[in-house]
Fold:
Amino acid sequence: MTAVSQPTAPVRPLTRRGSWSRRAPLLPALGFTLVLTQIPFALTIWYSLRNWNLLSPGRKGFAGLANYRATFTDDTFWKAIWNTVILTGGATIASVVVGLVLAMLLQKKFPGRGVARTLAITPFFVMPVAVALFWRSAMFDPSFGLLGWLTDLVGLPRVNWLSEQSMLSIIMITSWRWTPFAMLVLLAGLQALPEDQLEAARVDGAGWWWQLRGVVLPHLRPFLELTALLLSMNIIQTFGEIALLTAGGPAFGTTNITYYVYLRAFSSFDWGTASAYGLVALVLTIALAMPALRLLSGIFQQEGRR
Amino acid sequence: MTVTAAPLGQDKAVDPGPADRPRRRRRDRDTAGWPVAVLGWLGSLLLFSPIAYMLLKSFQTETDAAAPAPKLAFHPTLEHYQDAFQAGFWAYAGNSIAVAAVSTILVLLLAVPAAYALAVRPVRKAQDALFFFISTKMMPVAAGIIPIYVVAQRLGLLNTVVVLVILHLGMNLPLAIWMIRSFLQEVPGEVLEAAALDGAGRLRTMRSIVLPLVRPGLWSTALLCCVFSWNEYFYAVNLTTTTSTLPLFMQKFLSFGELYTAQVAAVATVVSIPVVILGWICQRSLVRGLLFGAVK
Structure:
């Protein structure tokens, strides 16, 4: 069992003073986070109800729900939502699947395993902007890129990755960056697998497939859920790769919500509409994230029961 | 469940004796057959190959680097590394170091007491508070960028490192609280009780007993915050222009029109090396901190 015990402070009645002295250490962090997240939130609501385009400064004033009407009737906005779902879903699934396979391979002892693990984790730490630029010219480029050379090698036609397969390219580089992280978390999960369960399955004559399906995957389930949650939380915010590789194109084909709000705000300078976009995106994200959040709270409750 | 990650600097309270765990047989079973070993190496090398390719190109002349086929025989040159340090590199690097260091120190100053109030001497509704911190990580960064821009403009903070420090602090704080909380939970309750019996005050217990116990965890949390701050791009590109961090320095290479592969490779290598080394150091504790707070 876990060698971890819950530290319990000596039990004493929670007097009013006592509860404030308990709360005091939490307050600076809580206050800071509240200010930094809730004030922008409130301001965004206010801006979203106003006409505010930096390019036409005369028309500043209350706009009512006009910005929201513009949001809901904007096809590109919905396309951006859809792109966000595809990118987040695709890259999360790819990273978790590849990460799981790698974790299972790198769990066993073999010569140089430590080095192999260290090499595998490296893509997660290199600067995303830097590697995106490198991938752009050295991997994706149709005439100079490594991928073009590889497709030639196996006899496939050359693909102009960033324009013909733009979404796939973004998913590829994003998954490449997040796979190592998935692998790390799942590796820890595998190491926590109780030996005796596998032993029992083996005694029962279960082959590796049944060991995997019957023992390993059920055990890994909370780890898989947590990995998917952490990954999607981060991948949903993808910005740098899109900005540097495709600039959201072609024809908004790789514009996700983050990038679309950025375009509206800092290239069309339509701050009223951009705020409405941001808010609608926020509400949709929360709606999408609710199952995930509930899952997370379920994990925490399990912990509370221990 | 056995925790097989790096030791935290404290003895594990329970260690199943040799009777429970036939160590020799276990080791035999854990050893991979050669197919697994080969596949494991192949997988790792595949993930690493774009970085290896980048290193390779960084030592080539632009002419060599423009060849689509990987060129393994070439006269290595250091010219791109020499050029990397020109064109204002050090100003950006200095900003990156300052932002990462200051924001991380502030993160720890806020996160350690908060984690204490969530794990060691928990407030009422500690779960809800933790939940609030984590949920802020789910908000799309784009939703808040306009007000942040406006407020930063009013306060005269646009194009300064101060605004980046503040936002990186906000970005890393939830993660740090989550990780430090789980490290603090691993401190056995008996240790705290013993200290209390010896008459040590709470502050003293924290300073001279608890913090030394979780020091490796704190270090890895700090390193991780540094990594995220170092690599952060969205706030940097929207709120700063000339006074900024290394991702913006990198971005300049895009505006040259044509990308110079070898030069980009060299600069990309230079800016990545510090955080890759930090990352290698803290990879194990990263997982422990993320996991054992949530999944037991």
In short: Chain B has one domain: 82-291. Chain B touches chain A through 130 residues (CB under 8 Å). Residues 2 and 15 of chain B are 9 Å apart (CA to CA).
